Amino acid sequence: MPISIGEAQDVYKDAGENIDFTVLSFKRENLAAEKAAFQELAARIPAITRSMRIRYPKSVLAIAFGISASGWRYLFPDVKKPKELREFRGVEGPKYTAPGTPGDLFFHVRAGEQAVVYEVMAQIMTFIKDETTVEDETHGFRYFEGRAIIGFIDGTENPDFHEAADYALIGDEDPAYINGSYAFAQKYLHNMAAWQALTTEQQEAAIGRKKFSDLELDDAAKAPNAHNVASQDNKDGVEHKIIRMNVPFSEPATEQTGTYFIGYARHFNVTLRMLNNMFEKSDRLLDFSTPITGAEFFIPSLPVLAKMAEGTL
């Protein structure tokens, strides 16, 4: 059974110009009402997407909608869950910790115009707001040249577009959920003053790449725990990849600046090994970046989303 991009949600495209990440939790007060709201939302999201793409064809709208293991157990206790969907309990390293944080539903909405992102999320919340509470909402943006907020080119390690589906979409290893994806959402706050106090050469050593040209440094010039080394998964001598996006966000007046990391993967175990490596090796970037959220979500394929909406999953 081959992977089909046409049946997948938007998990393999770029992060976008204007972005909204939202995580919701069910109130767990009325299962019937909350499940009905979820089913309505699952039915509406494809329609909202089609409508907005007709109304604003140049907006390059992309939406990914997912559910966590806790949300799955609440809504579908008798349905076998995707093989690698689990609660993210956090990761502890010798110096730093990545927390696991709550959430049942996840939205990643991006478009060229902020007005389109706003309209989509406003419509989405119409169907689910009465049954949920907001765990987090983060508005991101595209920084200069698509760079991360710390000034380096983002996405260098991503697979090429024509290979992206093989790394992002579940295959026949889990045929009931083929063309779905596992999303890992993690929000970091940066100590920008400390980062900017480094010289360019020190920043490059921390990342493992040249800041202007994006060329990879020789190993001797990298910090022993450089980010592009510590964040890899090379299990069994093979480099395993995911689709990763680092989205800047900031409130400059309050000096709250950070990165929202979203990784889409065929195998969540790859993402988890990357994360474990970062924290076990005390990735140099963690000296300046503090994770404050972390959760895994399953992004269903469009046919599975339709079954959810119809109550036939």
Explain what this protein looks like in three dimensions.
With about 325 residues, the protein is α+β, with helices and mostly antiparallel strands. It has helices at about 30-55, 70-75, 115-130, 160-170, 190-195, 200-205, 225-230, 270-280, 300-310; strands spanning about 20-25, 60-65, 90, 95-100, 105-110, 130-140, 180-190, 245-250, 255-265, 290, 295-300. Strands 7, 8, 9, 10 and 11 form a 5-stranded antiparallel beta sheet that branches. A 4-stranded antiparallel beta sheet has the order 2-5-1-6. β3 (about 90) and β4 form a beta hairpin. The mean pLDDT is about 95.
State the helical fraction.
25-40%
Q: SSE string, helix = H, strand = E? A: EHEHEEEHEHEHHHEEHEEH
Shape assignment:
globular
Q: Rounded to an integer, what's the Rg over CA atoms? A: 19 Å
**Biggest β-sheet, characterized?**
5 strands, antiparallel
Structural class given helices, strands, pairing?
alpha+beta
Oligomeric description of these chains: single chain
